[in-house]
Design a protein that fits this description.
- The protein is of the alpha+beta class.
- It has 3 domains: 7-100, no CATH class; 107-240, Jelly Rolls (Sandwich); 248-319, Phage tail protein beta-alpha-beta fold (3-Layer(bab) Sandwich), CATH 3.55.50.30.
- It is 31% helix and 32% strand.
- A 7-stranded mixed sheet has the order 1-4-5-7-8-11-12, with no helix packed on it. It has a 7-stranded antiparallel sheet with strand order 2-3-6-9-10-13-14.
- Strand 7 and strand 8 (172-176) form a beta hairpin.
């Protein structure tokens, strides 16, 4: 009979995995061995995040101190990186206060087309970053500030009432203490900034706008700095579907094929083209992987009797011609 591993044993295993992810560039979401390890115990996901945050502390501390010590200065029994990570996980808070790591330059986080990342932040928060996104993270003694340059990100904010967590997206500001929410900058002119709240409450406003600040609670959604007046909408199920990208998925529940094609085209170089305007207005339901536009096209063909023609650069969907 297998014994239940202790918290310290899990922390040691997490430190080992974090070191492997850091050294080999493993994909946390798609590496089968790592995913199996995470599923084996509910405590492992949190331990891995702590270990990855510890790597950030170690690397940032070394950068602040200057270059790594020369080889000849390293002791013969130098501790392994895994051991350093395990130790740094418990010392992170002390390091922050003791050596002023919060004064480091903002950290730039980016994703490429089709890439989705989950990144633990130095304060214990977590950010999930959608495709083609760029953001800057600045952690300071009295504030936590994120500047969303482009794209979309979801934040699970660690509680710290003394240091407000503020996301800036153009003129829009979103402030939270301990909550979870997403912010997306629209791709088109006048699209505005889309804010969706999954936990807690956030406060939103537009810099330079004299209108009162708006509070949005879990299950709420607001679009600011758009061509239309901001309105708060309550639709928890719609928000969950909109954030399915965090799991690498696109969830359709009555969107038109035109809307669905735009969603898939955000993640893939092979673009979906709906050639028939009437077909583009057809509604569709289904759950698909963001990187599998071919599966979506095949489902449309099977359900609506459409014809699919694809090449290296596009997937074209049209009505079947009846002879």
């Amino acid at each position: 009979m297998n014994s239940i591993p202790s918290a310290s044993e899990i922390d040691e295993e997490a430190a080992d995995w974090a070191a492997r992810v850091d050294a080999r560039g493993l994909d946390v979401d798609h590496d089968p061995e790592l995913r199996a390890w995470l599923k084996g115990d509910a405590r492992r996901a949190g331990a891995l995040l702590r270990a990855q945050a510890a790597i950030s502390f170690l690397d940032r501390g070394r950068a602040l101190a200057g270059a790594a010590p020369p080889v000849e200065a390293v002791p013969a029994e130098r501790p392994s990186r895994r051991a350093l990570i395990a130790g740094a996980g418990g010392m992170a808070a002390a390091l922050v206060g003791g050596v002023g790591l919060w004064r480091a330059r903002p950290q730039r986080l980016e994703t490429r087309l089709g890439e989705i990342r989950r990144v633990p932040l130095a304060d214990g928060s977590l950010v999930a970053i959608n495709t083609k996104t760029a953001l800057d993270v600045a952690m300071k003694p009295r504030s936590r500030r994120i500047v969303l340059k482009e794209g979309e990100a979801w934040f699970q904010v660690a509680k710290d009432p003394e240091r407000p967590f503020v996301v800036a997206a153009g003129p829009v500001r979103v402030r939270a203490v301990g909550t979870a929410f997403s912010v997306r900058r629209g791709d088109e002119a006048g699209a505005g900034v889309d804010v969706m709240v999954t936990e807690g409450v956030v406060e939103t406003w537009v810099e330079g706008d004299p209108s009162p600040r708006r509070r949005v609670a879990a299950g709420g959604r607001i679009v600011l700095a758009s061509a239309v007046s901001p309105t708060v909408a309550q639709s928890p199920s719609e928000i969950e579907r909109s954030l399915a990208w965090r799991n690498g998925e696109i969830a359709l529940d009555g969107e038109s094929l035109e809307q669905a094609a735009r969603l898939f085209n955000r993640y893939n170089s092979r673009q979906i083209v709906i050639e028939d305007p009437e077909l583009a207005r057809e509604r569709f339901v289904g759950l698909f992987q963001t990187n599998e536009p071919e599966s979506f096209a095949a489902a449309v063909a099977a359900t609506l009797g459409a014809v699919v023609a694809d090449d290296a650069g596009s997937i074209r969907i049209s009505r079947a011609h009846i002879s």
